[in-house]
Amino acid sequence: MTGEEMREWLWLAHVLGPCNPRSLDVMRTFETPRMLKQHIADAVRLHLLTPVAAEAAGSLSFENMTGVENQCKELGVAVVAFDQPEYPDTLRELDSAPPVLFVKGDVSVLKAPLIFGIIGTRRPSAYGIEATRAIAKPLAEAGAVLVSGLASGLDGEAHKAALAAQIPTIACIAYGHDHCYPAEHRTLKRLIEQTGAVVGEYPPGTRPMRHQFLQRNRLIAGLARGICVAEARQKSGTMNTVSSAIEFGRDVFAVPGSIFSPLCEGTNDLIKNGAAAVTCAQDILTWYGLSERAPEETAAKPEKSDASLSETARTVRKALNFAPQSCEQLCGKTGLAPRAVLSALTELELEGFAEQKAGRLFCLPTE
């Protein structure tokens, strides 16, 4: 894609805005953004653009998007337009298909044979964390590319499981690539970019806003062939993603949970209403005609070296023990700021030097 073509597609994305329900109709009616620019009156007549949007489109030139183009280049963000072969086929089906995707990492991952979503509550129980790990890691090892939302809680656990299995994972974000939410997931975001992809429909400079996360959820559902909910309340962002998955005709799976836990109300309700109940990764793999990777017979593992860890991670590791501790306790022990401790803990988890328990508590690994 030439620079001129990129600016044209960035113009179209700006004119339509995120999550526009007429986006696909516009792109099917007008083969290129330039054609829409030349026939704005027809777009209004066909009710594809409102008069207000049409006026804004008419006054905005393609060259006005040079700033966004330059920001993407500076950040190493690829702009994948709807008409490019790299654009995921599953997103082409959506009425609200983004005209462009802003991707950092390996763009080819977006067209992996099996992309599967694992989502759940931001404040999970120990059960939810263990269930997510038990399902996510074998799925990744079997070749599934896991997609989630880079959020705190079970989204983060799904990404970490994929990274631990050394398999690419996809994170869908609700802001520009110059931001990260939550801030403590900056290390996780960077690691995902190295082997997988971080994708969104928001240009650089877009700050995290609550409504954008609901818009983002449809991208998770749209990219995935199926999604699994490990733990969720009935009214939550997780269930918003499920609604999109059902609307798009995706497979929906849920982990059954305690009838006494509010965190399991959403998943249990999904099962009552037709979602497939899963108790292990093989339940999902069988659905897609796959099987878990056979465990490799290996000699006893040598003790890990922490030579590759950052200085901050080594400091936090020394403060850990087998009794779960909070971030605040570790800050007190190390004298480090909360953001630095949380970033170091992510690094330690991914390298197998730390383990997260329910309630955002951390300890040395028990295995």
Give an overview in words.
- It contains 17 helices and 11 strands.
- The strands form 2 sheets. Strands 1-2-6-5-4-3-7-8-9 form a 9-stranded mixed β-sheet, with helices on both faces. Strands 10-11 form a two-stranded antiparallel sheet.
- The longest helix has 16 residues, at 126-141.
- It is globular.
- 44% of the residues lie in helices and 12% in strands.
- The protein is of the alpha/beta class.
- The chain has helices at residues 3-16, 23-29, 33-38, 40-45, 51-59, 66-75, 89-92, 126-141, 154-164, 186-195, 210-223, 237-247, 265-272, 281-287, 311-319, 327-334, 338-350, and strands spanning 78-81, 100-105, 115-119, 145-148, 169-172, 197-200, 226-229, 251-254, 276-277, 355-357, 361-363.
- Helix 1 (3-16) packs antiparallel against helix 5 (51-59), helix 8 (126-141) packs parallel to helix 9 and helix 15 (311-319) packs across helix 17.
- The chain folds into 3 domains: 3-107, no CATH class; 112-287, Rossmann fold (3-Layer(aba) Sandwich); 311-363, Arc Repressor Mutant, subunit A, CATH 1.10.10.10.
- Helix 13 (265-272) links the parallel strand 8 and strand 9 (276-277).
Task: Jot down its keywords.
alpha/beta; Arc Repressor Mutant, subunit A; two-stranded antiparallel ribbon; 17 helices; 9-stranded mixed β-sheet; Rossmann fold; 367 residues; single chain; 3 domains
